[in-house]
Structure formats: structure tokens, C-alpha cells
Design goal:
- By secondary structure, the chain is of the alpha+beta class.
- The protein folds into two domains: about 150 residues, Nucleotidyltransferase, domain 5, CATH 3.30.420.40; about 170 residues, ATPase, nucleotide binding domain (Nucleotidyltransferase, domain 5, 2-Layer Sandwich).
- The chain is built from twelve helices and 18 strands.
- The strands form five sheets. Strands 3-2-1-9-10 form a five-stranded mixed sheet, sandwiched between helices.
- A hairpin with a 4-residue loop joins strand 11 and strand 12.
- Helix 2 packs across helix 3, helix 4 crosses helix 11 and helix 5 crosses helix 6.
- The structure holds adenosine-5'-triphosphate and magnesium ion.
């Protein structure tokens, strides 16, 4: 390796999962989770990433599971830093000597304090140089959208804790908005629905499983169903119930209306020429939430714009962030500033 060798990595720091990629592919993906213990009064990291996720629900007394990101922003600074260090070293392996240049995602519209927290965390975690990029811009690059053209592109990124919509042209964001709610809010809506309709208590993991297996944003031609176990609200005893797709459509209606409102607002704030480009090209859907069946049809039905799921919707932002390092001079004045 030449003495000038450096590695360019993109990091998509997500509420649920963190992905590290180069310009081609995701190299490492783990849960954004940590288990901490206490050494005297100081927090001590016991497990990180997927190792921490494996301990969920069976954490011994005295230890605590922490989700260091909440709704897309850092809630626990030092834990985020430790987690990033762990993941970066794991990705770099033996080449750690050549510390990477890193481009890391932040939701559009986060405060300068939140931006600085991410920037410092990644530098202190070992990056040689760090840049921030808005998640939807990174996702657009990762999805190969022609972001440099003067015509408008629209990207919607639906994560676990946040939903972001952005119109992009000439390498920059023209208008964008972030809803600090995502897939977890759909899970909570399903939990509430099952409690209200069946008097049954289920946990978020069960709700998420139902959402993925039979859920949809609009009614489907073929109705799916699934039996789950809950706990009777009154007797406390376990009881099964069979849920159907149309029930999930009903359960997630409200949170999806908020998603549509966010997208509508961003379109309203964009110049009419760009909106007509978007109607021609369609809205690109990225992030795990975009995998909900019928999301594309919901947008077409409610907003009158075509929409499509990008290739590798879960990986687009991380790969796009890595690719963005190659075009920093062109992107620079559009990237979130630190300080
Ligand atoms: N097939 C599916 N149908 C519906 N939702 C899904 C599906 N697959 C994943 N999801 C949801 O996608 C979300 C995770 O997406 P993603 O990994 O993009 O989030 P994240 O990057 O960790 O969070 P954020 O970007 O909000 O910080 C979860 O809420 C998950 O339930
Ligand atoms: Mg994300």
C-alpha cells in the first residue's frame, strides 16, 4: 500500500441500525445499541452493536441497554462515540493504521449542537477527516439519482425514528423536512390498535413482525393474515389473535398521514418547475420503512405523484455517503456546517 493510502467510508448512523459502506457496498451493519454497566459511578461499555442486541430482554441486573440515537439524533454522546469506534475498527480491521476519511449522515434540519455531536463523535472515534451529509442527499447519491442536473429529484427516507423528504437539484437540497417519527411509530400504532380492539397487550417487537409480514399502507388485493400471542389486558393470561392486512392498514393510517403531510409540505415549498420534474421522474423511496407494502401506491393515490422503491433501499444512504467523499468540492457548500 502506498503511504498515501486512505480509505473512504460512509456511515449511515440510524436510530435502529448503523451501516458502514465504501462506494460500492455496505461492509458492516449492526444494531445501534449498547449495553452498559457501572464502574463506581462511571458508565462502562459491556457490549456494542449486534452483541448488545443479542442481550436484549436478558440483561442481568446492574446492566442497562441503551439506544444511543433517538429519532435520528444522538441522545447519549459518549456511548455513540464508543459504538462508532467499535464499528469503525471492526470495518477497518488490519488497515486501521490508515485511518479513514468518513462521511456520516445526519437528518436534514438538525440543530448545530446535534450536528457538532455527530461530527466530534466520529473524529474522536478515529476518523482522520469527517464530513456530514443530510441523509436524503446521501440516499439520492446511493440510489444513482442524477443529483447534479438542474431538474428536480425527490427522495423520501423512511427510517425507524425519522422520516425525511427532500427535493434535490444541482447537488444541493432545494427544500426538505424531517418528521421525527418513523417505523417505530407504526409499531406503536399497531400496539395501540390491538389493545383497543382486542384488549390484548403486545410488545413492539411483535408489532414490528406483524407490520413486516402482513402490513401494508393501502388495502391489498390479496389479504394476508397472521396469528400472534398477546397478553389479556384484564386476566393477564396469554391469548392468541389473528390479525389481517386490512386491520394493519387501518392501524397505521394516522402515522402515515403525518408522513404524507411532510412530503406534501416539501413539494409545496419547491418551485413549480421542479415539482413537474418530480411528477415525471417519480419519488424515490428509501429506508426500511419504504419496504411497507403499497407505500408507492399510497403516495400516488394521496399525493398524485408516482413513487418507486430504489434498489437496496436500506443501503442507499451509507453507500451514497461514501460516494459523496469523491465529490466533496462540488457538494461542499451544500453540506451541513459544523460550528
Ligand atoms: N418489510 C418491511 N415493512 C415495513 N417496515 C419495515 C420493513 N423492513 C424494515 N422496516 C422498518 O424500517 C425501519 C428501519 O429502517 P432503517 O434501517 O432505514 O432505520 P434507521 O436508519 O435505523 O433509522 P433512522 O433513519 O430513522 O434513524 C424499522 O422501523 C423497520 O420496522
Ligand atoms: Mg436511517
Amino acid at each position: 500500500m502506498s503511504p498515501f493510502f486512505t480509505r473512504d467510508l460512509g456511515i449511515d448512523l440510524g436510530t435502529e441500525r448503523t451501516r458502514i459502506a465504501d462506494a460500492q457496498q455496505v461492509l458492516l451493519e449492526e444494531a445501534t445499541l449498547a449495553v452498559i454497566g457501572w464502574d463506581e459511578d462511571r458508565p462502562k461499555l459491556v457490549a456494542s452493536g449486534d452483541e448488545a442486541a443479542a442481550m436484549l430482554g436478558r440483561v442481568p441486573e446492574g446492566l442497562e441497554v441503551i439506544r444511543p440515537l433517538q429519532n435520528g439524533v444522538i441522545a447519549y454522546y459518549e456511548i455513540t462515540e464508543s459504538l462508532l469506534r467499535y464499528l469503525l475498527r471492526k470495518t477497518a480491521g488490519a488497515s486501521w493504521l490508515f485511518r479513514p476519511r468518513v462521511m456520516i449522515t445526519v437528518p436534514h434540519g438538525v440543530t448545530s449542537v446535534e450536528r457538532r455531536a455527530v461530527y466530534e463523535a466520529v473524529l474522536r472515534a478515529g476518523a482522520r477527516e469527517a464530513y456530514l451529509i443530510q441523509t436524503p442527499l446521501a440516499a439520492a447519491i446511493g440510489a444513482d439519482l442524477p443529483i447534479g442536473s438542474p431538474a428536480g429529484n425527490m427522495v423520501v427516507t423512511m427510517g425507524a425514528g425519522a422520516t425525511q423528504a427532500a427535493v434535490i437539484a444541482l447537488y444541493g437540497i432545494v427544500s426538505a423536512d424531517t418528521l421525527r417519527k418513523g417505523g417505530l411509530a407504526l409499531d406503536e400504532a399497531i400496539v395501540a390498535y390491538v389493545r383497543k380492539k382486542y384488549g390484548l397487550i403486545i410488545g413492539q417487537p411483535t408489532a414490528e413482525r406483524v407490520k413486516k409480514e402482513i402490513g401494508a399502507a393501502v388495502p391489498l388485493d390479496e389479504e394476508l393474515s397472521m396469528e400472534i400471542q398477546g397478553q389479556d389486558q384484564v386476566s393477564g393470561l396469554p391469548r392468541p389473535v389473528t390479525l389481517t392486512t386490512s386491520e394493519i392498514v387501518e392501524a397505521v393510517y394516522e402515522p402515515l398521514q403525518e408522513v404524507l403531510e411532510t412530503i406534501r409540505r416539501v413539494m409545496e415549498q419547491s418551485p413549480p418547475e421542479l415539482v413537474s420534474d418530480i411528477i415525471d421522474r417519480g419519488v424515490a423511496l428509501t429506508g426500511g420503512g419504504a419496504l411497507l407494502r403499497g407505500m408507492d401506491r399510497l403516495l400516488t393515490k394521496e399525493l398524485g405523484v408516482p413513487a418507486y422503491l430504489v434498489d437496496r433501499p436500506l443501503h442507499a444512504a451509507a453507500v451514497g455517503a461514501a460516494r459523496a467523499l469523491a465529490i466533496v468540492p462540488r457538494l461542499k457548500r451544500h453540506l451541513p456546517r459544523v460550528g
